[in-house]
Amino acid sequence: MPRILKDFLSRNGTGPGLVMLGLVLFWTVGLIILPQLSMLDFSFRPNLPPPEMGGPKDVYTLENYKYLIYGPEGGSQAYNTVDLMVFFRTLVAAACVTVFNLIICYPIAYYLGQTKGNHIRVFALMLIIPYWINEILRAFALRIIFGETGVLNTIFTGIGLFDTPFDFIRNDYALYAGLGYAYILLMIFPIYNVIESLDHNQIEAARDLGAPWWRIHWRVVIPYAKPGISSGCTMVFMLSAGALAAPQILGGPSSLWFTQLIYQQFNDSSDWPQGAAYAVVLLVTCVLLVLAVMRLFKVNMGDIGK
Amino acid sequence: MVAGVGVDLENLWIRFGDFVAVRDANVNIKGGDFFSFLGPSGCGKTTILRAVSGFLEPSEGNVLIGGKNMKGVGPNKRPTALIFQNLALFPLMKVWENIAFSMEIKGASAAERRKRADELLEMIALEGQGDKLPSELSGGQRQRVAIARALCAEPHVLLLDEPLSALDLKLRQHMRTELREIQQRVGITFIYITHDQGEALTMSDNIAVMRAGVIDQIGEGKTIYNDPATPFAASFVGENNVFRGKVKRVSGDRVLVQSNRSGELLARISTANLGRLKEGDNAMIFIRPEAFELAKTGTEGDHYVSARVINEEFEGNVFNIFMEGDGGKEIKVSLPNLGQSFDSHKGQTMTLKYDVKNAVAMPAGVLATE
Ligand SMILES: Nc1ncnc2c1ncn2[C@@H]1O[C@H](COP(=O)(O)OP(=O)(O)OP(=O)(O)O)[C@@H](O)[C@H]1O
Ligand SMILES: [Mg+2]
């Protein structure tokens, strides 16, 4: 038995230790790894009606992946430009949402983390309470704000800023706002957590040595907050790229989110292998992107957990 | 090298809501001085320092640095550098980057910064340690890095907020000497905050004794020790024995006090209180433990004290004798150990003699509570 396991069991008692271990194993293996593996398996198989499954036609193939790149066989175009465009647009948009979110959330997190007093608790509550409302309702609430006859348009045409109502939805403003808003807490709290532990004297020391405010942030606060920033950005990016409800409700009719394509394949075309292949591509690309960015900014994997 | 400039506090008041943290402070610190603010915890020392460095605007009055009024000048624009109580080194920057941070702000190249940092590292005897992180240094080394970082900014005034309090005794004593040396080498003004009178006395040119937001006395260490202005200064700086009583007669700078339990005592009125004692006033007389010598038992007179010995201890360089004193407090007597034999007198009454110039009298007032 490895030492770490022995230590774990002796610390928690053999009985409870085994139960805990079993639950964790069930959770990671049973609920995460196995279903994902079966998805991976699906993605390499042809889409067959149930009677033919396991039959002679059920062989491993790259067809589903090829489809994303080349489109249907004998199609009019050399590449599957529509799906590929959606794919890249989703990644770029998710990255934009992440950066945008970071720009908004960093000052909030800094303020919450470095200010003392009871009003901070009230602030934090005000941030959390909207999340008691479910995602769909929040998305529809944004539709009310951004819609053609919505609050913003009424105000802007009212004060004469616009002559005709502006279509926030068709232009995807509503979508970005919705995605940004949906994950704001996931950005604020990790950053807040680290900044709260930053000794205020360090900020004062930098100021005393002559640093203007931006340099204090650049050299003292941001390097210190890097673990929080990277875990916030990772979560927001992953969840935005994988979001479904917000694009469904707030996206313009012409702009699909890649998850919507996946959803259509699973649901509308009942082509599970094709959907699985798209999902795998999204997952792997996101993970690789995150790892690359982490490497670029010299963030360790261990920091993310902080 | 930059020359030290003077710092003046003029009628400085600092309030937090209704609470007065500093009350009407008037201090003139000469350029190049090592000046200490000495006082117990919570008396407003840090508050004064923050007002000088610019993190806090005075409620009333002025802070002048080099004769210039600092009103509205931010901490990053003042010719001061502050060393924080907990040092506040930047943990993610290497030691040399920490030291040269102020140059980075001014846009110096990495090579210039590195060169200056190495010079300063040599000055603080940490050559070759520039590439470490602060966490890889010992407490005393970190202390010196904090000093180097502050000096690198070429301040005219260096402000130090109890910088030695986190160190152990040996290191603290070593750093005292070192700080004093550094100050004399760079020649700038040091304003040093401490609640440790030993630190203040050994390092400073001048000391301000503070009590609850009020400055009681400003002067050289020797003056404060030998000629305290208030009962607080007398009892806070060094050990002291207090005798309370009523003034019987005043003549010149001498005063005869009818003490509560030691008979009539003759004393010298402290300089700051000349002319402020008259017959019938409540007075306090302070006599240091080392100012007593043994006299023949039963001798009486206006510079003799007799009391029963409660306890005795041997401290190496001195014998300490504790005797029944006034108001439940013991009288402490320290006799230098000159190799003489010393018999126990526990329980007996002993008579002590003192030189009148070493007994300092002043109007009764608040004592420092230990
Ligand atoms: N921001 C503030 N708001 C309210 N009261 C304050 C504030 N800062 C300091 N005080 C009060 O002012 C008084 C003086 O504080 P200060 O920090 O100057 O003490 P100090 O002499 O430096 O003590 P120490 O030796 O313990 O550091 C204290 O009673 C403190 O409670
Ligand atoms: Mg303090």
From TrEMBL, chain A:
UniProt KW Cell membrane keyword: yes
Protein's UniProt keywords contain Transport: yes
Signal peptide location: none
Keywords: Cell membrane, Membrane, Transmembrane, Transmembrane helix, Transport
Superkingdom as given in the UniProt entry: Bacteria
Compartments in which it is found: Cell membrane
One Pfam family it belongs to: BPD_transp_1
Domain ABC transmembrane type-1 positions: 87-293
Residue stretches spanning the membrane: 15-34, 86-112, 118-133, 174-195, 229-250, 276-297
Principal location listed in the UniProt entry: membrane
InterPro entries: MetI-like, MetI-like_sf
Membrane topology: Multi-pass membrane protein
Family assignment from sequence similarity: Belongs to the binding-protein-dependent transport system permease family. CysTW subfamily.
Annotated protein name in UniProt: ABC transporter permease
Automatic annotation (TrEMBL), chain B:
Pfam families, A to Z: ABC_tran, TOBE_2
PROSITE patterns: ABC_TRANSPORTER_1 (PS00211), ABC_TRANSPORTER_2 (PS50893)
Matching InterPro entries: AAA+_ATPase, ABC_SmlMolc_Importer, ABC_transporter-like_ATP-bd, ABC_transporter-like_CS, Mo/tungstate-bd_C_term_dom, P-loop_NTPase, Transp-assoc_OB_typ2
Keyword annotations of the record: ATP-binding, Nucleotide-binding, Transport
GO MF terms held by the record: ATP binding
Domain ABC transporter: from-to ranges: 7-237
Protein's UniProt keywords contain Lyase: no
PANTHER family (alphabetical): SPERMIDINE/PUTRESCINE IMPORT ATP-BINDING PROTEIN POTA, SPERMIDINE_PUTRESCINE IMPORT ATP-BINDING PROTEIN POTA
Protein name: ABC transporter ATP-binding protein
Naturally occurring in which organism (per UniProt): Albidovulum marisflavi
